[in-house]
Write a structure and sequence with these properties.
Length: 410
């Protein structure tokens, strides 16, 4: 059974639930794919499919680029209990011949959304040389690294402090209590620094806030040195500070159209078996493992926005977020809503967070078949890093040509 590209496009435009699966290896996927495609290589279907596509009758469309993988992938998915699986007619070539846009790299639509945010909101930024000068002058600045802690520890901007994306609004007042302190948000490239900076601006943080333009890539291309092995983290925020952050974040979520749920409301959503439902606790892994609400998996909020295609490959699904402090879930939800998701925040008593330990996600994929990201590690070639930045700069135009995204920016 096959489905024409136009049918897939129309499902996306109508916001119907659909999972578009590229079953090639990640390196091939990164060379070109439809905007909302998710990647599960043939060898990982058994490990990942049930985890990432929780409803067995989800409409799934699989494709390759002529390698002969799609038929076997469809058979495996059906054998695992997925009953609504079809091949994309003509594979990736069919999509291309229909005149539809192909996007490169991984997590493409999250990155394209970040570029759209900067384009629409003119998110302020400083180039690497300007930030280096401020560090040298011992200016009143705080550099907040919005990546995962393990990425920060691998390499970081001098004096930078690890504050993963969803923690920024919660932690800003503790890191920079003086409103005259300039906050500079960085990531490896562009997306998380743009989203992090705009999160603080949207929440009304009183400090001047800037993104480090082009992140550690831009820093490296400017010939400036990075630190390795740092352990600096934001200090714990007090109860009053957490409440202020919650109020600010909730206001942003309200403006973005995020809905709120009681536990009884959540039960009603769970009972609706016609829809896919993702449940995510957006705190850091240690907090999650110490105690979380039953049924919620862990996805750090900043990474959920950055890697939405991984965590929620069913476009059109519902997403419910939980967080004991509130601010992290509200800010994460505000971005997912702007990315076109039906997203909710659960108001729940974390005294009922009775489950402990990791969420049982499949083990990470090996070195093999993985796309080498130009923003990870310390051994990337300058030409590859510059090419990556050039690609990001072109994403807003690609979104306009594609026309299926449904993004909006508050």
């Amino acid at each position: 059974m096959s489905v024409e590209p136009v049918s897939v496009r129309r499902a996306l435009l109508a916001r119907q639930e659909i999972a578009i699966l590229d079953v090639r290896e990640e390196a091939a996927f990164a060379r070109g794919h439809p905007l909302f495609a998710a990647q599960i290589p043939l060898a990982r279907i058994e490990a990942e499919a049930r985890w990432r596509i929780p409803k067995p009758d989800t409409r799934i469309v699989v494709y390759d680029d002529g390698e002969g993988l799609a038929d076997e992938a469809a058979e495996r998915l059906r054998a695992f209990g997925f009953g609504n699986v079809a091949r994309l007619a003509g594979g990736l070539g069919g999509w291309r011949r229909a005149g539809y846009e192909l996007f490169e790299d991984v997590n493409s639509y999250s990155k394209a959304f970040g570029e759209l945010v900067e384009h629409r909101r003119h998110t302020p930024s400083l180039i690497a040389e300007e930030v280096q000068a401020l560090i040298r002058e011992k200016a009143d600045i705080a550099i907040l690294d919005a990546r995962r802690f393990d990425e920060y520890r691998t390499m970081s901007i001098p004096t930078g402090v690890s504050v993963p994306g969803a923690e920024l609004v919660l932690a800003a007042a503790a890191v920079a209590p003086d409103p005259d302190t300039t906050i500079i948000v960085n990531c490896a490239g562009r997306t998380r620094s743009i989203i992090g900076t705009q999160s603080l601006i949207n929440a009304g943080v009183p400090n001047p806030v800037y993104a480090l333009r082009n992140g550690t890539i831009g820093w490296t291309l400017a010939g400036q040195g990075l630190e390795a092995g740092q352990e600096r983290r934001a200090p714990e925020i007090d109860i009053a500070g957490a409440e202020q952050a919650r109020i600010k974040a909730r206001n942003v979520a309200y403006r973005a159209g995020v809905k709120r749920l009681t536990p009884d409301d959540l039960d009603a959503l769970k009972a609706d078996t016609s829809r896919t439902l993702y449940l995510y606790d957006v705190r850091q892994p240690a907090a999650y493992e110490a105690g979380h609400l039953p049924g919620f998996r862990n996805a750090q909020g900043g990474q959920l926005v950055q890697e939405t295609d991984h965590y929620a490959p069913v476009r059109g699904a519902r997403i419910v977020l939980s967080d004991d402090r509130g601010a992290r879930a509200d800010m994460t939800a505000s971005w997912l809503a702007q990315m076109g998701w039906e997203v909710y925040v659960l108001d729940a008593d974390f005294a009922n967070a009775t489950q402990t330990g990791p969420d049982g996600a499949p083990p990470p994929r090996g070195p093999e078949g993985r796309y080498k990201r130009p923003y990870e590690g310390t051994d990337n070639k300058a030409a590859a890093m510059q090419a990556y930045l050039d690609w990001e700069f072109g994403l807003v135009d690609q979104l306009a040509r594609d026309g299926t995204h449904g993004f909006f920016v508050i």
